[in-house]
Amino acid sequence: MIPRQLTLKNFLSYRDAILDFRGLHTACICGSNGAGKSSLLEAITWAMWGESRAVSEDDVIHTGSKDVRVDFIFETNQQNYRVIRTRQRGGNSGLEFQIETPNGFRPLTGKGLRATQDIILEHIKLDYDTFINSAYLRQGRADEFMLKRPNERKEILAELLKLNQYDELEERAKDLSRQFKARAEELERCLESLKNQLLSREGIIQKQVELEADINQLQQVQAFDTIQLQSLQVVQHQRQNKEQHLNFVRQQYQNLTQDCDRLQQDRAAISGQLSVLEKLLSREAEIKAGYVEYQELQSQEEAMGTRFEKYTRAQQARQKNQQQLTKQIHELERQLQHSEAQLAALQQQEQDLQQTLGKSDEVEAALAQLAAARNRLEQLNGLQLQVSPLLQKRASLQTQIERSHAGLVARLEQIGATENQLQRASRRQPQLQQAVMEVAIQIEELEKKRVYLQRVQEKGQERRHLIERLQAHQRDYERLLGELQQKLQMLQTPNALCPLCERPLDEHHWNRVVDKTKIEYKDAEDELWIVRERMAVSDREIQVLRQEYRDISQQLSPYDTLREQRGQLAAQLQATSDVEQQLQQIVVEKQQLQQALEMGDYAHDLQAELQQLEQYLQQLNYSEQDHALARNEVERWRWAEIRLSQMKDAAKRQAQIQLRKPEIQGQIQQLQARVQQEATESECAKQIAALEKYIVELGYDTDRHNQIRLAVRKTQSWQLQYQHLQAAQQQYPQLHARLQELEVALQGRLGERQKLYTEIESFVEQLQETANPTTQIQALEQQLASRRRQLDEQLANLGRLQQLAHQLEALQLQYEQQQQQLQETKQQYRIYQELAQAFGKNGIQALMIENVLPQLEAETNQLLSRLSANQLHVQFVTQKAGRSGKSTKKNVKLIDTLDILIADAQGTRAYETYSGGEAFRINFSIRLALAKLLAQRAGASLQLLIVDEGFGTQDSEGCDRLIAAINAIASDFACILTVTHMPHLKEAFQARIEVSKTQQGSQIHLLI
């Protein structure tokens, strides 16, 4: 990845900035601390991967801004690409990816932020972690790899090489291994259970044969009894037929008896009806006379009803016309009241207008005063137009003079604070030197304790490994004891077989096998006790080591703080070297500023211009107070204009009222005449009079109508009696004929009933002469049912035995299948055990690290020889001998580690004993070698190198060597960017990117 152009908007300390990398090969990014040098590099990582040193995503937005945008154009594989990343404060982020074509940039953006990021990674073949650990030597992280412990270095290197995927594979292999182991144990338990169940198969077959013989015997006896039962059932069936015929005849006899009773009841009912009809027919003349009277009254009531309907309709029409007439009169009265109210209002308005027109003299005098006041105001307005620009200029000059004064005061305060700070720094220099020596002594003591702590940790690991081996032995002995216990239990059963050859044992061999098994059981118990004792001793040793480890770790807790404190003290001591010269310059500048403030010797041009302006304003003699009084005087007499307008409107309104009054009075007189005319001569009044005359002519009498209605209701019963009489005249001949038919039918039924009685007596005698086999049949049926239940039980038992036999056959097949599954599961268990070991730290990962380290060591020493004039050499050690006291020269235990041995002309020394410049050169060589290695493994060529703050710990000779080394490796990279805040080093680079911080944000100046 080669940078081409970087465009920033509101990113960290930058507001708007554009940096063009075209033509830059080896360049220096220089500027003071905090100017924004590292922010340029952070912008590249944020645009490409969305990562930066900011804690939250909104922290990259410039203070006071609402959004941020970074536009980065780069080249990879001879193709230009463009990445645009944006973010709204408190909102969402945006990401665009484009490729350059002859027609401009074409988008490659995916659907969503994550998809676009994946497309970018696919093209550049570098993720964020690989970039910052290879191409970007970041500020404050140059010695991160060296300061880690050996095991932590190995973890970092594994992480950089992305070997953590093998850890995941190891865990997956262990999980699968545990699953197959559990499955194998479960299959072994199932096979043992199936084996115990299959032992009962022969006994079940024997029981099945015996049960089938018993069932055949029962079936033969059951067949003989069934034949005997069938013969008895034939006799019983014949007897039942006779009984059924007898019951049928008896039923017919009973039905005839019921028919006779019913006919007698019908005869009595018809006789009663005939007597009632004869009485009604005897009153025929009386009923007909009453019915004639009823018909006459009914005709009179119908005539009165017709007259009542006409009377009701006339009354309703009269009421409707009366309501309409009342409504019309009320409407005319409402209009009359409205006209009278309008007339009264016009009279009141006429009085008010007369009062307004009576004040004309007072208004004319006020208008003269208003004209004079306006003349005075126009004169003052003209004068104000001349004075206003002069007043604004005077305020501007005063502001500029005050700003100059404030700037001098602020600079004086800043100089005073700087002077105090430098004086304190000058006084602290001996204290800092003493503090550096004390911290170095403490760190040396803690280094010794760290070495001892490592020995304690190694011994604890050795004890833990021993316990793991003992636990494995314990599990083996416990499993052996279980097997021996099971073998003894099997030998205690009658007719026990040999556990090995599965042959029957005689008494002599049985005793030998039992004694041998007990001896083996006792030996296993003794070995298990020894293992447990050794585990207890090892566990107590681990507890002691843990307590010792905690104590030493607590003593080493200030170690990192002391190292950080030593670095801070060294930086502070270096910063106090130029304090005296800076103090002299500050004192001279402070005296000059104080003298200028006391004498007012600043902004001379502004003060002279302000004095001339004051003199001219006095000549004009303009007073804002007089101007305000003139405005108030005009406002005080403006009411006269308003009053004059009101008087003109009043005169017009008075003329309109004089015209309107006669018109309203005429309307009132017309309405009064219409009210009187409507009450007597309107169409509604005429219709009401005609309806009243029609009602009188009808002559309807309500009392007479009610009397007729009462008489009709009293004679209404004759109508019902007349109807009954007509029905009786029709029914009497029919009922008399029906009575004769019933007499004939009754005599016939009585004769048939006598014949059936004789037949019943004959069937009863025949049944008494025939025997009843019901008792014998019930006894046989009970025997057959009992034998059938017994047979069902036997058949059910036979079915259960057959089902059990089928189940045992299925179990035999399942036993064979599970044996095969057990073999396959054990094979899978062994395979995944081997895979877990292969994917572990001591497998493929260790092999890959050992293959990478020679290349890393060679590349590091090649770079380090350039930086140190062949004075420093680095060696990576992956194994070392253990410190166990039991080890011999032939049997030395090797421990995995990743120590870095550094040698110079004086020999091999610890990393902490080297100076800051030497340490940085070592770190720089290792980091650069790692960068090349990681880029090579990622499949991308390392074309960009960024060194952030790498010169601060170097002396002049070290800086020259570092610059020479950068120039020496310049041909390996397309672009090298070096960041520093040291002014005297920027001259060593032909191309410089100078960064400065202003009130408008950080600014960039490119010098080539």
What Rg, in angstroms, do the CA atoms define? 65 Å
Uncertain runs are none
Strand order of the largest sheet: 2-1-4-5-6-7
| Count of helical regions | 22
Give the overall shape, derived from the CA principal axes. Answer: flat
Mean pLDDT over all positions: 79
- Major β-sheet annotation: 6 strands, antiparallel
Number of DSSP strand runs? 15
Helicity, as a percent range = over 70%
Plain-language structure description:
The protein is of the alpha/beta class and 1008 residues long. The protein has helices at 37-49, 113-124, 128-132, 144-147, 150-160, 164-198, 201-281, 284-357, 360-492, 507-555, 559-575, 579-599, 604-620, 624-637, 639-681, 683-698, 702-714, 717-769, 774-839, 841-868, 916-938, 956-968; strands spanning 2-11, 14-20, 26-30, 67-76, 79-88, 93-101, 104-107, 136-137, 873-881, 894-904, 907-909, 944-948, 975-980, 991-998, 1001-1007. The strands form three sheets. A six-stranded antiparallel β-sheet has the order 2-1-4-5-6-7, with helices on one face. A hairpin with a 4-residue loop joins β5 and β6. α20 (841-868) packs across α22.
Short description:
The chain has 1008 residues and is α/β, with parallel strands linked by helices. Helix content is 74%, strand content 11%.
Task: For this entry, give a set of tags.
six-stranded antiparallel beta sheet, six-stranded mixed beta sheet, 15 strands, 1008 residues, alpha/beta, 22 helices
How is the topology of this model organized?
Blueprint: E1 2-11, E2 14-20, E3 26-30, H1 37-49, E4 67-76, E5 79-88, E6 93-101, E7 104-107, H2 113-124, H3 128-132, E8 136-137, H4 144-147, H5 150-160, H6 164-198, H7 201-281, H8 284-357, H9 360-492, H10 507-555, H11 559-575, H12 579-599, H13 604-620, H14 624-637, H15 639-681, H16 683-698, H17 702-714, H18 717-769, H19 774-839, H20 841-868, E9 873-881, E10 894-904, E11 907-909, H21 916-938, E12 944-948, H22 956-968, E13 975-980, E14 991-998, E15 1001-1007
Parallel strand pairs: 3-13, 3-14, 8-12, 12-13
Antiparallel strand pairs: 1-2, 1-4, 4-5, 5-6, 6-7, 9-10, 10-11, 14-15
Helix pairs in contact: 6-19, 7-18, 7-19, 8-15, 8-16, 8-17, 8-18, 9-10, 9-11, 9-12, 9-13, 9-14, 9-15, 15-16, 20-21, 20-22
